């Protein structure tokens, strides 16, 4: 066993802890650029609440709200302009995964020259970024627990992560009460994404003992909370569990990376703008079916944490969960066409080479095409 | 459930990873003050090896080797003088817990004015310190995984921790092969200390889900490795397990703090200079016996991880391990006298108030005296 472990997260977790935001962020400066989306943080009043909590501590803030699902490079550059015009000291992302990832990219490009995709592809490197504070409002991406920020280049369709400890949030405020306003369909999708993060981190060739602990605990917590919340039975304790599972999933992939389901999903949602969770729902079972033989003990462990017995019923456990979440769907119903498969398979090797390499089975281009066809 | 979690460790772990030290520490500067002890790192050749690895990468180093077990404030000040005279850029601690803690204190006082104990007691606060790099050569203290540094003030006999993220090592290089030179008696003591760290963190009122994961995993790893190494049966895999358990123990107490066994041990080894592990061996069982009723589920979990069934056989599990390690001893045989008890009990409240407050049972002064008498 040998590994390196460096994930400098700083988490504040608990129902109602958003109320501490004003007192906690002063250490990062006096002026916050709040990055958020068009809709839900305004409708729920959260955006006004956060601005008010900052103002109460003498902090100024300005809102940049032009981030859309699957954020793009131009949206990031617009955000950087807002950051510089306002002369902000730090970036505060309030929202779901797209928002948090955009906030990280804006904080990064605020300190760096050149093109964002140069850094995404590693052609340029920098450890500089404005401090990032994150307030997740969905429990899915786990972006609050790692140094990943997924961004899409509309010129190429490439959807890929900027990565590094420089964009790990200097503080993440994870308040399970903020998750409760998610629409039910979104809950199913982001909750399944949490499970995928934990499963893929545990299966990754880059897994280490710390990521294993986080991932297995996360899988158990998803089992104890997701269906119960989706069917309306769960309460505050289940929101806590799923929120914590989400952060654990983010931390586990921050350490161990992802495997084939995410590697194959990014090209699909980069191309057709389907939601990430629905893409994963379509792709995960076909990938697992073709991967079990290469890591039976790991799949058996996952299966047991989900309520099964061994690697043989791991697929059934996942399928039952998907059915319970009304996510037993294919890519075809999400707008992906058979003629997209060749491009997606080639793009997967371009944008997700690490995810493909980390999978228990190292799939060939033809095998990946076959998985996409099965998932249609 | 609500908590905050901020433990910015950066770990490099694995057999032989010490060979990477030269390449890894350049980011902290060109001149390293190496803090080490009088004996073992010289005898084993490790000190020369480390200096050579640094020199091979163009780094200068100078050795400060005046740290003794249970390091004192004057030793820290001497180290600070060496740091300043050499104009070092960072501090590299190579050794056991005393060495690592001294290295942290030297790095801290190199940047701060006034008396070290002012910071230990919180009368003064600073977040400044020279970067610290740690190379543990014993698997016990776990200092490589947290922001604690225990120091003794010889004027008062107080043995207490400096604490803060500013003294979390910027890099810890944990090479299980370096542990294999420990004398067998030292192995027993530091290995039992690992178990205490994990048990106490898990029992602490300040425990959070992350520290629970670390602590329970650590307990299992101790069970799988310590006796086997002590009896000469274990090999490289067991050294890996115990080394990782040690770091996990350090991380878990870095998050959750300690409870009564450590709280009561510090006054004993502060006063009589017995070794920390032998003090813990004498005190842990009397403390557990009086604490189980307040946290039966937690003690049952510990017992199961040690091979027992429930809270009722937790004491037996610990006693059997102590006997196997030839550590079924009392404080009396370590030089502690009945007339020391009153001072130790009062000192425990002075130096270890948090540890006493975090214990499942909040012991009174009289109860603590009674525990010391039982442990004689």
Verbal overview:
Two copies of one chain form a homodimer. Chain A has a six-stranded parallel β-sheet, sandwiched between helices. A two-stranded antiparallel ribbon of chain A has the order 7-8. Chain A has two domains: about 10-180, Rossmann fold; about 185-375, Dehydroquinate synthase-like - alpha domain (Dehydroquinate synthase-like, alpha domain). In chain A, a hairpin with a 4-residue loop joins strand 7 and strand 8 (about 160-165). Chain A is α/β, with parallel strands linked by helices and about 375 residues long. In chain A, helix 7 packs parallel to helix 9 (about 235-255), helix 10 (about 260-270) runs antiparallel to helix 11 and helix 11 packs antiparallel against helix 13 (about 315-325). Helix content of chain A is about 50%, strand content about 10%. The interface of A and B includes residues 9, 10 and 11 of A. Strand 1 (about 5) of chain A pairs antiparallel with strand 2 of chain B, so a sheet runs across the interface.
Spell out the key features of this protein:
51% helix; homodimer; Dehydroquinate synthase-like, alpha domain; 376 residues; globular; 16 helices; two-stranded antiparallel ribbon; alpha/beta; Rossmann fold; six-stranded parallel beta sheet; 12% strand
């Amino acid at each position: 066993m040998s590994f390196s472990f460096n994930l400098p997260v700083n988490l504040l977790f608990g129902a109602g802890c958003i109320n501490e935001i004003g007192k906690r962020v002063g250490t990062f400066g006096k002026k916050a650029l709040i990055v958020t989306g068009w809709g839900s943080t305004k409708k729920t009043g959260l955006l006004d609440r956060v601005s008010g909590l900052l103002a109460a501590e003498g902090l100024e803030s300005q809102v940049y709200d032009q981030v859309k699902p699957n954020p793009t490079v131009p949206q990031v550059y617009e955000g950087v302009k807002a950051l510089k015009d306002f002369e902000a000291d730090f970036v505060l992302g309030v929202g779901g995964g797209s928002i948090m990832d955009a906030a990280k990219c804006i904080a990064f490009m605020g300190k760096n020259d050149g093109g964002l995709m140069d850094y995404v592809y590693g052609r340029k490197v920098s450890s500089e970024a404005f401090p990032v504070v994150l307030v997740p409002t969905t429990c899915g991406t786990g972006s609050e627990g790692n140094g990943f920020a997924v961004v899409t280049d509309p010129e190429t369709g490439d959807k890929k992560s900027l990565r590094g400890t420089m964009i790990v949030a200097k503080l993440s405020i994870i308040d399970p009460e903020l998750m409760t306003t998610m629409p039910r369909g979104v809950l199913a999708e982001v909750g399944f994404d949490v499970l995928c993060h934990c499963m893929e981190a545990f299966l990754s060739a880059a897994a280490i003992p710390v990521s294993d602990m986080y991932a297995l605990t996360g899988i158990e917590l998803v089992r104890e909370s997701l269906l119960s919340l989706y069917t309306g039975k769960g309460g505050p304790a289940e929101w806590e569990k799923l929120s914590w599972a989400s952060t654990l999933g983010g931390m586990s992939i921050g350490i161990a990376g992802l495997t084939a389901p995410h590697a194959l999903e990014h090209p699909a949602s980069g191309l057709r703008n389907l939601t990430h969770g629905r893409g994963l729902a379509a792709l995960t079972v076909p990938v697992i079916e073709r991967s079990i033989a290469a890591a039976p003990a790991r799949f058996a462990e996952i299966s047991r944490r989900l309520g099964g017995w061994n690697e043989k019923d791991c697929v059934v456990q996942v399928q039952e969960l998907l059915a319970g979440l009304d996510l037993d769907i294919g890519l075809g119903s999400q707008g992906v066409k058979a003629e997209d498969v060749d491009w997606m398979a080639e793009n997967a090797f371009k944008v997700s080479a690490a995810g493909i390499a980390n999978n228990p089975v190292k799939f060939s281009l033809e095998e990946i095409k076959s998985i996409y066809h099965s998932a249609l």
